[in-house]
Structure formats: structure tokens, C-alpha cells
Amino acid sequence: MSGVESISHSGICVHDLKAAEDFYCKVLGATVHSRVNFKTQDALRGRSVHTSLMLDDYLFAVMLSEDWMDVPPPKVLRGENRVRHAFCVPRARFGAVVERLQANSIPFEGPVSHPEQGPFGESVYFRDPTGNFLEVLWRRDEDAVYNEVQPLGHGGGGA
Amino acid sequence: MALNGAFSHLVVECADLEKSEAFYRDVIGLDVVGRNLVADNRPNSLLATNTRQRLLLVETGEVPPYPGSGGSIHHAWLLTIEQFKAARDRLEAAGFSSGIDPRQSFRAVGEYNMDIHDPDGNRFQIQAFGEEGTEILRSGAGTVMMGHMDDFAVGSVTHNRKGRFFLVREDEGFLAVSSWCTHKNGLTIWQKESWHFYCPFHGAKYDRKGCYVGHMGCQPMRLHPMQIDALGQVVVDTNRFFGRSGFEAAQAVPAEPGGKFDETGLTELPACDEKEVRERAKTGG
Q1: Could you tell me if residue A152 is inside a domain?
Q2: Which residues on chain A are in Cβ contact (under 8 Å) with B56?
Q3: Nearest chain A residue (CA) to B87
Q4: Of B58, B74, B134, which has the smallest distance from its Cβ to A80's Cβ?
Q5: Most confident stretch, A72-81, B94-103, B125-134, B185-194
Q6: A48, part of any domain
């Protein structure tokens, strides 16, 4: 057993909150969980201004960057720029997701096949409007039984 | 179209795979699945949580600094309380000052957090949620005299900070709504701009009657019993809490001298002393 239950969320930075919200919600189907602290008094108290998006079972706290961030050249579709977030879909639906990216004119790289001895099947790589890298894949272990990912704020067994 | 899938893995660049793999295995506590299991010509290591979620480390030789974000970029590991205690021991053994949570004032009661940086400077939160987050907390304010009923206009929401409640004046009468969020013991605030109670800790929202609005499935905010005395003074008993499944007009105390709280259909909930729970939370986690 691992000493860690799951990954609960990520805070990512973008240059344009509206463009990010449109991309994650309209293209990938995320939902707005909350718009946090757009009130002046909250900002003055030091709370970060961000939009929380749920993409499948994952929470992104999408924050405005403090300054302009270095963005890899547009032609670089597969990368990390420190990190990349990967989402898995059932193998049977992988083709439909790729078509969806094409239909929305989202440039992507792939599909790329992974070694058979690993848990991953095939991936496509793309990026959000700011240049945060994303990946969609199907996994060879999609029928394996793991602990369920608990919703935000759950104690992972305790609470 | 939603992806209708799930989060699979986080890919993190590292300058030294051996060093980072050891950090995530020995300090964070992930299990190593294996090396070079993905289609990437850079050395890489896959590590596992207890769910399907994985961490993939890829060695890039050099991880450049990442200015501009203002330090907001982070990722959060969710642990059980037992795992959290074990992780804290590992962190301390590895020389991290794990007791420091720079944003403790923004945590709900029973929410434990350690902020650390990996060998390449990536910021990670280590989170756990204890049972203190779901206990009902009694403020210690006891019986609170709020003033004359005519001083509260229909539609008004009056915050009693010490008593941890809002006095809400509805058409139907008064509600004394506990300000604790029913999700994880954050203190809600009243946002008049949107006519909602809002919990800044995890984003829960409630309407003016204290009923949850959203998709986290939270219970309505709890009610304190209250009454209007013979002189029209509003009196709230903060020692007792009642749970409910939604709003019904009968929950409102009629705005007239002698107006009384009707417990019918409500469930009284056992409460703990907030101070005691906060004290416990200091050493908990």
C-alpha cells in the first residue's frame, strides 16, 4: 500500500481566466465549482483570486499569474514546462475524444503508443490557451480495482 | 462533452531522477511502479498512490526556474490522518520543517496541511482531513440577546461573530442559522452581493435560508433554537443545534412577542466545545 491516498487538486496559473474557463468547460467539459474571492475584501485579506474547475474527478484552482509566464513555443504540443496533467478515458471512447479535439481545432500530438509492460495505452498531447500541458489517454489497467478517489475535503477513510 | 474519464497522472520534470524518485518514495510515501514504462525517450519513473492516480517523473537534466506565477502553482496530495502522521514523521526525519503551514488561517477546523517543495522547487501540499472537520462546534456564547425584533427588516441578515450565527429575517419570521459550513467546519461569510452564504475554505454556497446550493451535496446550515420574548426581544440559544433536510416555513420563528422555535421534524445534534476542538486540532493530524 502506498502512503498516499490520492492527488486532490492542483493550482495552475493562466494569463486569461475567461479564456481558460472557456477552454476547460467548453472543450473538455469541465464545470465551474466556484469562483473564489473575487470580492475586494477577500483579496485584501490575502486570499487568492481563482476559479475552481472540476474536470472529471479533478479540481483545478485556476489562478491569474502574478506576471507574464514563459510559455513554450506554440508548436510544442507535448511537454511539461515543469508539469503536465493527464486524464484517462475508457479505451472505447478514446477515438471520440480525439475527434472532439479535432472538431474544436485544438492542435495535438499523437496518438502515441506506450510500452505494453506499462499501465498506459495511447496518449494524445495538447495544451490550454496559456500553455499548460495536458494529456488524454486510455489505460491498459482500466479494469483494475483501485481505491476510489474521494471527493474534495474527504478524509480518505477518516472523516 | 465532458471527457467522462478521470484524472490519471501528474507528470513532473526533474533534474535528477534518482534523487527525485527517492524523495517521492521515501519522504512523500509513494510506491515505485517501475522505470521507463511510458513512451518517452527520457529516463522516467512511475510512482503510485492507492487510487489509480500516478506520478510520472521525467528526467530533463535541468529544470528551469518558473517565474511569473507568483508561487501559486501547486499540487496537493490527499492523505488519511494515519498516513499524514506517518508522512510528518518522514518529513521531520528528512529535515523538513513540516509543522509550518503558512496559510493556516485559511484552513477549516480539522484540515491539516504541510507545504513542502520537491528537489526541483515544485510546491506540494500534503493534506488530510480529521474528524474535527465534521463535529458540531459550540461557540461558548450561550444565550445571546440580539435586540428588538422590529430592528431587523425582512430580508436582513445580521452576523453575530461571537455566537457564530446569522440572524435571518424572512417573510415567515426569524431563523438563527449557525455560520459553520456543514461540509468541513469552515466559517461561512454572508455575501450580500450575491445573497449567499459562502464558505471560503472549499467554496460551498448556501441560500439565505441556509440551504446548500451546488453539487457537493452538503446538508443545510444548522439552526439554533430562538424565541421572541414578551417584550419583542430576540433571544438565540447558541448551545443547541438542529439539523434539517431543507427549509420549511415552520422552521421560522414568528416575528411576534412570544414567538417560539418549533422543533418538529428537526433533529437535535450533539455539539462539542469549539475551543476544546480547536485545541485538539492544534496537536491533531
Answers
A1: no
A2: 86
A3: A3
A4: B58
A5: A72-81
A6: yes
